[in-house]
Write a structure and sequence with these properties.
There is one protein chain. By secondary structure, this protein is an alpha/beta fold. It has one domain: P-loop containing nucleotide triphosphate hydrolases (Rossmann fold), CATH 3.40.50.300. It has helices at about 20-30, 40-50, 60-80, 95-105, 110-120, 145-160, 175-185; strands spanning about 10-15, 35, 90, 125-130, 165-170. The model is unreliable at about 1-5 (pLDDT under 50).
């Protein structure tokens, strides 16, 4: 693993489940930004299709480890592949895997901690608050509303614990949310 400086154009969009992160990422991409998809949903879908065990309802530890590793790989690949000057938005980051570990009481090994401390996104992290009116469950998202709220609060703790500043994105249309984020990074 390389010792990387904070990448000022790499922004995380995070929050609990079902708050509109992926929809917001697509809106930002439609406006010309680079977007990196969420690893967790891809991993769950892959494991479901393959009959794998790395699922939050089968093997939480394996799921967390794979989610963390793939998030780190995605970050490193993006640092190599990205040649532009504009912002890159990640639908969640590797700290989300550490948040999941905290939620589930799974120990985090020293290597993960060191990776999280050395590999840095932009200091400002965009967090979407729980929004019951748009919350839905599906085949990959099985958490109930109370779990979604609890996850949001644990996200705040996790990101602050790694010295990130949280910028709460308002509950509004996807267009207003995208405007808010783009205005925030351009000032």
């Amino acid at each position: 693993m390389k010792d990387l400086k904070p990448l000022n154009t790499f922004y995380i969009i995070t929050g609990g489940p079902g708050v509109g992160k992926t929809t917001l990422l697509h809106e930002l991409q439609n406006r010309g930004a680079t977007g990196v998809p969420e690893i967790a949903r891809e991993l769950i879908k892959e494991q479901q299709e393959q009959g794998g065990k790395a699922l939050p309802w089968k093997n939480r530890k394996l799921y967390m480890e794979m989610m963390f590793q793939r998030s780190v790989e995605s970050f490193e690949k993006t640092t190599i592949d990205f040649k532009g000057t504009g912002p890159v938005f990640f639908d969640r980051g590797f700290l989300d895997a550490l948040c999941y570990a905290a939620l589930e009481g799974i120990p985090i090994d020293q290597e993960m901690r060191i990776s999280a401390e050395k590999m840095r996104y932009n200091t400002n992290v965009f967090i979407l608050p729980p929004w019951q009116e748009i919350y839905q469950t599906d085949e990959q998202r099985k958490q109930d509303w109370n779990e979604a709220v609890f996850t949001y609060n644990k996200m705040i703790q996790t990101y602050r614990g790694y010295q990130y500043e949280l910028v709460e994105v308002p509950k509004a249309s996807v267009q207003v949310r995208a405007d808010f984020i783009l205005d925030s990074i351009n000032h």
